[in-house]
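BUG-261 | component: ligand-complex export | severity: low

The export step for uracil jobs runs without errors, but we want the raw record kept on the ticket for reference. Input record follows.
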Amino acid sequence: MNAIPDFDSALDMLAWQVELGADEAIEEEPVNRYDLPEAAPKANLKAPTPSQQPVIHKEEDIDAVVEARKAAASAGSLEALASAMQAFPHCELQRGAQNFVFADGLAAARVMVVGEAPGRDEDIQGKPFVGRAGQLLDRMFDAIGLSRQAEDAKDALYITNILPWRPPQNRDPSPEEMAMMLPFVKRHIELAAPEVLVLMGNISCHGLLGRRGITRLRGHWQDVAGRSAMPMFHPAYLLRNPVMKREAWADLLEIKARLKS
Ligand code: URA
């Protein structure tokens, strides 16, 4: 039996279709599009000579994870990494997204937050964590004296996500999407070189620790490529479960103490 979506989900689905360009309603009468006047002249149908033929790589011959590792490793700066990610042709999410979302804040910050993926607001603005969850994230870190607006590295925050493109209807990333984008995230961490990482929610823990189960992981320091990493409840989860803010506050104090020590 098909479940009827609630109002908010129906609105999200409609907005998603409009974003993809599906903005024409089905009409009462069928339209024979073969009878419509030609909009553009016919393409030149002469067969291309061998030198004009494009080199076609079959997608199944390409290992996207290997390609991602090569592209990430050859990026020597954050700017080069952002360009390499935008030029990476194997992640289908790029086609449905309006914007590439790389990072926000000060790259030299002592603390780097790794979230999940852009949502609708982030996709529109091209910046991570700018919707309701992002506003809560800002308030949480403000409470321990850290901000993405700060110009001094000691008070600053640097923010990115596991995925730089919004998944359709904010679904969880597939294992393939995660695997092919992870080399870029790891290189991003290497280049930014923060003292402390904050892994926001299960997707981030899954990607960087290979483990889920945020309820058990949160509050316990982990190691990500030699750096201290604190798993925390995702702010979107805290918006739905405000009683868990007490745990989030304890984790923030733990981060503050680590930065002082
Ligand atoms: N949630 C995330 O994990 N990242 C964002 O950028 C926005 C919402």
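Assignee comment: Attached the raw record above. The first helix runs from residue 7 to 19.
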